[in-house]
Write a structure and sequence with these properties.
single chain, Arc Repressor Mutant, subunit A, Tetracycline Repressor, domain 2, Homeodomain-like_sf, DNA-binding, TetR family transcriptional regulator, transcription regulation
């Protein structure tokens, strides 16, 4: 039985792989499971990515590209840079629909931390996210949403740290959704830096 190597774009396969990762974790992720998700045979994924590891590396590389492109898209959809930032963080965290999904993604991160090649990719994703957050905070500063004295570099690091920490606390206490928890954390971090005339941090 032949697959449809020309019928499904790599980006579609990688999105499916990310969804499968959240559902099954490292032990359950196989080329066969991902292939079934997109209606292909495993051999097609072997031709494209070589192995499960190759698929994971390709997914990380795609994540960097997607993250770098995201600020412009969300900024175009929102009237304020801070509103775009809230949307950006919501889009990143929304796939964690349950504590189990969060745990599965966290398990992949643990793999990244112990494997040099995977760590390189994970760091690249982290840096792309830092650039995305920093871009929107810089825009918020230039449009007067943030106080002129705001240290954007320091605030960017704090936003990243709070976002990560909020997800972990949510997975433990399981109150509300991860998007709600991250939004509250973001609002708390931004509050001291909001310009007096700005009605809300992320309107």
């Amino acid at each position: 039985m032949a697959g449809r190597p020309r019928g499904v774009e790599d980006e579609v396969i990688l999105r499916a792989a990310a969804e499968v990762m959240g559902r099954v974790g490292p032990s359950g992720l196989t080329l066969a499971v991902v292939a079934r998700e997109v209606g292909l045979v495993p051999g097609t994924l072997v031709q494209r990515f070589g192995s499960k590891r190759g698929l994971i590396l390709a997914l990380a590389d795609q994540s960097v590209r997607d993250t770098d492109a995201l600020p412009d898209r969300v900024r175009a959809e929102h009237g304020s840079a801070l509103g775009a930032l809230a949307a950006l963080l919501a889009e990143w965290t929304a796939p964690m629909v349950s504590p189990q999904t969060f745990a599965n993604h966290l398990a992949f991160l643990c793999m990244d931390l112990t494997d040099p090649e995977l760590h390189e990719r994970a760091l690249a994703v982290h840096e792309a996210q830092r650039r995305a957050v920093g871009t929107l905070l810089t825009q918020a500063l230039s449009t007067g949403e943030l106080r002129a004295t705001t240290d954007v570099e320091a605030l960017t690091a704090t936003v990243q740290a709070v976002t990560s920490g909020a997800g972990l606390v949510w997975a433990l206490d399981r109150q509300g959704t991860i998007v709600q928890r991250v939004r509250r954390g973001l609002d708390a971090v931004l509050a001291p830096h909001i310009a007096a005339h700005t009605a809300t941090a992320t309107a």
